[in-house]
## 1
Amino acid sequence: MKKPKKTLKSLNIDKSWTLFLDRDGIVNKLIVGGYVCKWKEFKFIPAFLKYIGRLSGKFGHIIIVTNQRCIAKRLVSKKGLALIHKKMVSAIKKRGGRVDRLYYCPHEIEDGCSCRKPKIGMLLKAKKAFKNIKFAKSVVIGDFESDMEFARKAGMTGVLISPKTAGIGGTKADYVYEGLEAFWKAIK
Ligand SMILES: [Mg+2]
Ligand SMILES: [Zn+2]
């Protein structure tokens, strides 16, 4: 018989924990087959804005880790992306939330870099910047299996936000929820 899985609640998440957030599909709406190249194309997911304040109060660190190969494709400049992120962070602050650091991979898949998720280069950078980050006390929230692979590689807890796969299985995620609201209810 399979051991019943621990509930998220039993992890007792507190300020000693870190939350790694994927961006597209979690913070803002994913543009299928495209990229957010301008601020006006950046559309917050309402549940994210609703819960980021509460999540910021719960976790010690809030860090965004995102693959942005739109830079390698020259669809947006580094300066342009920085502007989008500046506006994003300021909107998050207005809702009582915070982002302690944001890392992005600017490379193309073929570049073979060490930072494109599921590789863990961005995690290692975060760990260098914040010495008290513990991967065993970190949650990764993402909408792709590659985010869950990323979580698993470093021994972090992977939470897949996926309205479609919730309850179906066949995922590397430790937990699957339909949205951030259900995740918040599971940890609070
Ligand atoms: Mg995503
Ligand atoms: Zn990279």
## 2
Amino acid sequence: MTYLGDLPSPNSVSPRLPVPSSPRSRFMVTMIASLFILALSSRASGGLFSSNQGPIQLQPLLAGLAKPVYVTHADDGSRRLFIVEQDGRIKVLQDGAASPTVFLDITEKVSRGGNEQGLLGLTFHPQYSTNRRFFINYTRRPDGATAISEFKASPDDPNAADPTELNLLTIPQPFSTHNGGMIEFGPDGYLYIANGDGGLALDPFNLSQNIGELLGKILRIDVDRPESPSMPYTSPQDNPFYGSTPGRDEIYALGFRNPWRFSFDRATGELYAADVGQGAREEIDIVERGGNYGWRVFEGTECTGLGPAPCTAGNYIPPIAEYAHSSGRCSITGGYVYRGVRGTLPLGSYVYGDYCSGEIFMLKDGVSSLLLPTNMSISSFGEDEAAELLVVDLDGAIYRLVSPGASSIPRRTR
Ligand SMILES: [Ca+2]
Ligand SMILES: [Ca+2]
């Protein structure tokens, strides 16, 4: 079965497939939602999407999860996957296993007010296989502040974490929304942290443009060179506001509203951040050290009228791609540049989605195309160790992106 014949006209693209009642039939719908040629008109898409073709499918990997918001791997050769559940659990899935087990449970520490608080991010140290260090980003009880903390895997059991927490950084949050959440090591070995603007509409305190604040920023810290026992990290000296330069030392780039998900291109090292917009524009940024990405002066390339007049675009780095709130689209979920070896997608294409519409998109050579419509609430994408892509449905499931015509699973060589 294909949905090709069921497609509405390009001007009335339905953002979601019909949602069947049972989980099983819902699985079926997403499984069979294979790629088709869909030339979205400029009216429907804001002129940002073109057509694309080639088979791509969702292959169910896990179901029955509780609000999963992320999936990643430890890059330790185990081929395990680690799933983050928003309430405060990390689960580990052995290679080939049917169900995961609990790796860490900090639900009693996690504030879950509103939709956007919770355990939001996880990353493993580049030398995890020898030092067992991993890092999380969560909103803490009781005040909802963002906590960046380090844990270690148990020395006795690689599938259980030692519950001892080392807090690195605490960032007060004025409101419950726009907590960012991503945390990931860059190719430079530093830890990058995404922070939203603190919440409410239109950044009421103008925090994203304030270099004295950590909100509305992407931070970069060095977790291998603690400053002191009470200050377990330092800021790299080439951070833009390091030392006597006015501004917080931890800032790497500024002007973000809610950069929920970012990733590094494994081949080029480029940092792709997807910044969730207010009411008009969703955007993808290539983030450079010291760059100002515009919020709240600009939402995408639109002047908000809130910044210094006139709105001077030259002072800010524009997104490499953006789209309007239309056809049910309202919140971008950043993904990954595909660098796998199975030929699932064109090498170098950036895969992302929209949480509200359920659509999965691909950005290639500056052109965005619709890869796959789904009925998911796409909370995140992820990579396995071999750089194949995963999709996370907040409603409880994780899928692999697969191409039926692509090569079979290669054995990893290390
Ligand atoms: Ca400084
Ligand atoms: Ca921007």
## 3
Amino acid sequence: MPFPKNFIHISHPRYLEHDTGFSEHPEVAERLEEIKRRLQTLTGPGRVISREPAGPASQDWILKIHSEDYLLRFEETALSGLSHFGHPDNQLGYDTYEIALLAAGAGLTGIDLAEKERAAVIFCSVRPPGHHAEKAMALGFCFLNNVAIAARYWQEQHQRQRIAIIDFDAHHGNGIQAAFEESPEVFYLSLHEHPTFSFPGTGFAEEHGTGRGRGTTLNLPLLPGAGDAQVEKAFSRHIEPALADFQPDALIIAAGFDGHRLDEMSGLAYSSNLYRFLGQRLTALAAHHCQGRMVSILEGGYHLPSLGESFSEYCSGLWQSP
Ligand SMILES: [Zn+2]
């Protein structure tokens, strides 16, 4: 059961160039600058942080999740100078298509490193985020589903067949669920604000997967105002037993920090400390079930000081042996 020693932070300077246009848009480059600042505070005796640039994901891997027609439309829309793709939420600039390929590539770089260096904490700080993007639809600031592409890569490039994706962003990852709802080998587990009250309106507890994938989708919706205690209970009662039954070969974490009580993108009321709890428990699960193979990929988190603090707590938790 290896516990992590080294911290590998995967990012790319071009992520800062993804232009979401008007000033009120919450998904801004400053989010990654805040994370970068906090990264400095994580160093300490015996702790090594290495920084790796993400490589671009090749189109072959993107097409495991998205349709060719959608990719073409995305590229054409970006290059045409239009301000958004499909919906005004999905603001984009001339370079967004290329930058989105680099965002999808971060997870693949992380997975290659996780296979080489198992006892490492691996965090990918990317933008644009991904978990709302569907096969042929951009949604909620997301264009390419970074986490879903990474799951297929881990299966096909490294023959880790059973992948568990744990999504603790405040919103349901409709795109990840849609990609794998018929797949018995990818288990999607999501903790999020109840869809009756929250974007995107999916992720009811009754959604368990379909066909051969029935039973490998687990939605744990939380009422507005829910905080640390509700998450800790759901984790012990539902997530840990589900993973013990499923026996994953690798974990991918959709790490969104917008459930923080100061983040106005949800009605959830998590403290920064909750993210330390999540980091510790996820590290323990990865050590127990899959020799430490785990990669975390950034999703949401829009209140900058809370994002920084929550990221820092999460990484400290990932790095802290129980
Ligand atoms: Zn979110």
